[in-house]
Predict the structure of Glycerate kinase.
Amino acid sequence: MKIIIATDSFKGSLSSMEAANSIERGIKKVNEDIEVVKVPMADGGEGTVEALIHCTEGSLEYIKVKDPLYREVNSYYGILGDGATAIIEMAAASGLPLLKEEERNPLLTTTYGTGQLILHALDKGCRNFIIGIGGSATNDGGAGMLTALGAKLLDKSGSEIRLGGAALSDLHKINLESFDKRIYESNFIIACDVDNPLCGERGASAVFAPQKGADKAMVQTLDNNLYHYAQVVKETINKDVVDIPGAGAAGGLGAAFFGFFNGKMERGIDVIIKLSNLEEKIIKADLVITGEGAMDFQTGFGKTPFGIAKLCEKHSVPVIGICGSLGEGYESLYSCGFSSIFSIIDKPMTLCEAIENTETLLEGTAERIMRLINTFNS
């Protein structure tokens, strides 16, 4: 019997590979002879670099960059096995996890560090880029990133504006004379699952800024500033980025990639599936196990387990989901290809207890699943 383990991370507790290792141990407790193939997964957010480095035999690059509040932090990105493709999680430089809750303020936060990651990869010879843009702490339309790559964002007096979403109101002109020309020689795939426009009621500010620390007044200010920014972008490169689906992703970072990088947006899970050759592996499997921290009706909107389940359905391979918690509407996932879905919770416990014991709980759940399968295979 051959089993593919293709899980996302269990956020706050285990990486995707750690989760796969736990599931494998549970399987092997029942039958040592089962062939297990582990393919760590992600959807463009946390864990994307790890997943792609593993499946392509790539390498990690560690560098110091500016965090969302322009403080120096240790960061990283990956170079895939081909030596020419960089995989970057913008959250590793400009993400919410880098800030304390009381530090969240999208009027001030910047994507400058994301630009530094791209610059370093360009210096390493990379000309193909996969950028995961989930988990941002920013709402600056990618202005900080552009600045790090040599663009000059100027006010009416010709001085460079400050960093952050609030400063965009002062923007008068974007000077691209010093913008890194290697950008134009490169290809950018933006791994993202949202289709929000830059501005308006479904825009970056209205939908995502509150979780980044914005109150109602700040949301309005940020939305106005992004609209103004978009007008200057149009004057500069003759591209209207306001209503492009996905332009509002990561606080408007999507708009900068569409406008200045000719970026192409793809669903994060689709990118990982393609580069990991997961479909080829699934075709030869008897069972696939996938999962993540929580599974509910939103999982069917394109999250990792959904993408894998649809692929299994295509090739008539049974797929089982394992998760920390089963949320509202999880039953709808059975129509998406899942044979069954299991929660790892085996007794009443707090969220903190579940997170602390995820490794053991995953192993135990995998063992129980295999014992059930063995009953019907014996």
